[in-house]
Design brief:
Elements: H1 14-20, H2 23-30, H3 32-38, H4 40-50, E1 57-61, H5 67-75, E2 80-85, H6 88-100, E3 106-110, E4 123-129, H7 138-148, E5 149-160, H8 167-177, H9 198-206, E6 210-225, H10 228-239, H11 248-264, E7 266-267, E8 270-284
Length: about 290
């Protein structure tokens, strides 16, 4: 496991490093194929919007196990791709798959994109799939990304719409709460929904020399497993920590509620929930 001294990390991202370079990152690395399939309906629009060219130099921010970076590398055959993430277990998977696929124009580095010393104006495209929401200081992070982009370079990212538009989080968190009133984190705190307000996205990017900001909604089913048992194992592996503090009766109630909502969403195509993201594209006018 990495330590805070292993690389430059902003103090506001220290908790994220402990999370993603620890057990949660290891869980995502172990189940990377499952997670990539879950987000597939939002991955396609992201890559189409990024429109990576043959000679583009691409930065993948929060690359995880590398699907976006690898797809970008397949398009940028005369260019290059750098994927950065805090999670060494996920980066190990990204490197292994890229090597197995013979992709020589992509590399992966453990780095905090909020403070990493990227070469200025060295990228044509910056992409991020459900990762930018976790920065501790988003203004600083996007300022650093902007410095790494050439003038006229573009940023394309996917972030979640608010929880009411995402059936999966409402159903799962409601089940695991077991009747408790669990207060959500502050809107600007690092977390899945911290960039769920389109106006806030626009203001954040314009404050960092991005122009022509376009935010479009994408609504699609999100897949959690081929069967109810497979979906339960994945979701419980992610959210089991929410049972902390419950007695045996409360734990049993939460588990039953989770199994019930998953069973209710089982279809011939697997366990599906409604999901909604924002697909944002902007140009850097530094």
């Amino acid at each position: 496991m990495a330590t805070l001294s292993a690389m430059p990390v902003d103090p506001s991202n220290a908790d994220q490093l402990r999370t993603w370079d620890g057990d949660e990152g290891a869980f995502w690395a172990e189940h990377h194929e499952h997670f990539d399939r879950s987000i597939a309906a939002h991955h396609g629009p992201l890559m189409a919007c990024a429109d990576v060219g043959v000679s583009d130099r691409v930065l993948d921010v929060g690359c995880g196990t590398g699907q976006v970076a690898r797809d970008a590398a397949r398009s940028a055959t005369s260019g290059s791709v750098l994927g950065v993430d805090l999670s060494s277990p996920m980066l190990d998977v990204a490197r292994r798959i890229a090597a197995a696929e013979g992709l020589t124009n992509v590399r992966f580095e453990q780095a905090d994109a909020q403070v990493h010393a990227f070469e200025q104006e060295s990228f044509d495209v910056a992409v991020s799939r459900t990762a930018a929401m976790f920065f501790g200081d988003k203004r600083a992070a996007f300022a650093n990304i902007a410095r790494a982009l050439r003038p006229g370079g573009r940023l394309v990212m996917v972030t979640w719409q608010p929880p009411p538009q995402n059936e999966w989080i409402l159903e799962f968190s409601g089940a695991m709460a077991a009747g408790r009133d669990l207060s959500p984190p502050p809107p600007d705190a690092p977390g899945p929904f911290s960039l769920s307000d389109p106006a806030a996205i626009n203001d954040l990017l314009e404050a960092n020399q991005f122009r022509d900001v376009n935010v479009e909604g994408v609504v699609a089913p999100m897949w959690f497993g081929s069967t109810r048992d497979e979906a339960f194992d994945l979701v419980f592996g992610l959210l089991g920590w929410m049972l902390e503090g419950l007695d045996n009766t409360g734990r049993a109630s939460a588990i039953d509620a989770l199994r019930a909502t998953i069973a209710a969403h089982e279809t011939p195509d697997g366990v599906l929930y409604r999901s909604a993201t924002w697909l944002t594209r902007a140009e850097h006018h530094g």
